[in-house]
Amino acid sequence: MGKPASAPQDTPHYHGHRQRLRERLLQAGPDALQDYELLEALLFAAIPRRDVKPLAKALLAEFKTLWTLVNAPPERLLQFGLSESAASTLLVAGAIALRAQKKAIIGGALLNNWQRIVDYCRMAMAHETVEQFRLLFLDRKNRLIGEEVQQRGTLDHTPVYPREVVRRALEIGAGAIVLVHNHPSGDPAPSRDDIAMTQAIVAACAPLGIAVHDHLIIGHAETASFKALGLL
Fold first, then answer.
1. 63-68: long-range contacts, CB 8 A cutoff, minimum separation 24
2. Which DSSP letter does residue 191 get?
3. pTM here?
């Protein structure tokens, strides 16, 4: 007698689920998918042989939002149990989104792009666990020509040197700047040190004709503006 025929291999249930999810994404667009479903679709390529729905839900339960997740420190993603491939996929997604937002605001007039600039700063900084000080550079027509991280500090302090701010503005050829830093505590209220530092930068910039248009402090849910508060 010949050998009995082998039982057919069962197709994993999630294969059909992946195809259906892709079809919904392509036909109805991203807005038709819930956050965990978008995350599933992102993880498909990095984790090809596993049902990633439970993982996607667990990641959102841990990190709370998609943006916090794709900006999490790599070591934290690895500690959660993700492979280097999966962790890299998430970090690349966050970097692409932030870079695209930056490209969209560079070259635009400050007045017409102010909310987009604030949104970009929130995207870049609200999730940070240490203080970060950024400079936004504008030309004489108040068009944004560049931005960069000037200093990184600790949980509640960033060393900022007015001479370095002026030097960098001159190197860029900026006629005006906007100061931005975050408060990892979540409260965007300016401290005495924040106010003193801003006044020192304004004083250093004034003799060279460099205007300081605003100083934004990024909290977890809100953003404080020195200009709006009457501090500048």
1. 65/35, 66/35, 66/38, 66/39, 67/94, 67/123, 67/127, 68/127
2. P
3. 0.80
Q: Which domains are present in the chain?
A: 14-99 (no CATH), 109-225 (3.40.140.10)
What distance in Å separates the CA atoms of residue 21 and residue 33, rounded to the nearest whole number? 8
Question: Letter for the amino acid at 117?
Answer: I
> Token digits for 197?
């530092």
Q: Which amino acid is at 159?
A: P
Which parts of 50-109 fold into alpha helices (H)? 53-63, 66-70, 74-79, 84-105
Element spanning 150, H or E: strand 144-152
Amino acid at residue number 32: A
Could you report the per-residue pLDDT of 47-88, keeping only the tens digit for each?
988 899 999 999 999 999 999 999 999 999 999 989 999 999
Q: For residue 118, what are the contacts with CB-CB under 8 A and spacing of at least 6? A: 216, 223
- Token digits of residue 52: 């990633």
